[in-house]
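Table S2 (continued). Query chain:
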Amino acid sequence: MQHLLLLHGALGSKDQLQPLATRLQNTFHVHSFNFSGHGGKPFPDIAFSIPLFAEQIAEYMKESNIEQANIFGYSMGGYAAMYLAKHFPNKINRLITLATKFHWDDKTANREVKMLDGKTIQEKVPAFAAQLQQRHAPNDWLLLLDKTKELLTHLGNQNTLQPEDYPSITTPSLLLLGDRDKMVTLDETVAVYKQLPNAQLGVLPGTPHAFEQADLSCLAEMIGRFINEKA
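Corresponding output:
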């Protein structure tokens, strides 16, 4: 069976992807791991960045003796995988992204950073605060918020992948987006899709940004069909 690596998004963890992994485990050798600072994994000595997370994907593959894998990346995980495809194309057979935000500028970053205020989260959505605390223990989830805000601010100042980068990414890619995603626009997803020389585009009906609200049976079917289709 082919290897399939599942990557979580910002503030997420590999545990969130387990329901999807369960649906795919009879078809692929499914792998997942936590990016540094997430899911209790220690924080790195340097700032969060897309190149750092891409490097961690490569490190996991090396440690697991995986020369090449199919990769599914949710949100930030998809961005890190796309960066890996740009710089280390031989490591990825096929790439699937879901709800990945590719367009970043100052205005976009500032809007997203405001939503990551720890005090506001504790006061207005205490259940989410408790979830973050539990998901990332023993790490301080407030520190994780701060480091994520720094990452988003950096992306706003200088987006890691520029429009001119995508035409050179030849990895077969499937870009997926929920039709009710309020963070990622259809326009930015289509813009990247049009720049990639070997890409497909898919829209999940009735689906917002949150991974937990995706139809996982439908998603698993789309992933499996894309990876196994004949070239």
